[in-house]
Amino acid sequence: MPPDDEPSPEHDNGTLSLLDRLGAALLGEPATRAQLIEVLRDAQQRNLFDPDALDMIEGVLSTADMRARDIMVPRGQMDVVDFSRPPEEFLPVIIESGHSRFPVVDGDKDKVIGILLAKELLRYLQLDKRRRAKFNLRDILRPAVFVPEAKRLNVLLREFKATRNHMAMVVDEYGGVSGLVTIEDVLEQIVGEIRDEYDIEAEDVTIIDRGNSEYVVKALATLEDFNERFGTVFAQAEIETLGGFVMAKLGHVPRRGEKLEIDGWRFEVMRADSRRVHLLKAVRLGAA
Hints:
The protein is α+β, with helices and mostly antiparallel strands. It has three domains: 12-63, no CATH class; 78-191, CBS-domain (Roll); 207-284, Uridine Diphospho-n-acetylenolpyruvylglucosamine Reductase, domain 3 (2-Layer Sandwich). Helix content is 35%, strand content 20%. The protein has helices spanning 15-26, 33-45, 51-63, 68-71, 87-97, 121-125, 129-133, 153-163, 183-191, 223-230, 242-250, and strands spanning 73-74, 81-82, 101-105, 112-117, 146-148, 167-171, 177-182, 207-211, 214-218, 259-262, 265-272, 277-284. The strands form three sheets. It has a five-stranded antiparallel β-sheet with strand order 8-9-12-11-10, covered by helices on one side. A hairpin with a 5-residue loop joins β6 and β7 (177-182). The chain is globular and about 75 Å long.
């Protein structure tokens, strides 16, 4: 039996070399991030950890290079609450969007006065008419956090964790609001897409009826299937899928939250990356 300080035979061929390479990386080598990623990919191929772990490691590394501007929801696509309006007017917007947090603005998106948690409005719904008349939205707002467009995602995530905030307003060099970013947006860069109640788990299902003329649709659903189910006549030359159809009509690869209204339907992008759309919410307008 070999002494305890000698490597066992099963480590002689390959594994020891890999550990040496990983150790060298911790001591300052490889010289570049690309070389480090190659070492990590080599380790994964040797089944030292699974592909999901590799994806997350690469995601963590990428956050140091990405800025808030790269993942923010642009100003024009932000769902906001206008402070000057009574809750009865903006409650439908909150319910329809499905978001949990909303910037509250004072007439202009550059004038963000706080963040509203949708659940806080439950207090309002429990009030009688007399107490609703005295309700002040400011009393339930959380302070808004502002970050520059150039804020690195790894730093932003650390600040989210330290302050327990889940949303930040992104501002340009002149102080104007250019968009918003959430902790979920940052985490998705690391762990991939975070699934929620809108996601369709079954591979053979492309359309789910959520009631009230609202449907969740995989972007890969064919135009033929959609038209057959809903009696529509959507068509686009050389395009077969609903996601491709929406992209063609918008004229670009849309980001999450972008909407398209066409022929009595509103399509909202629920999931998308830099190349294509993944998930849509479809609402039949004017339906009883």
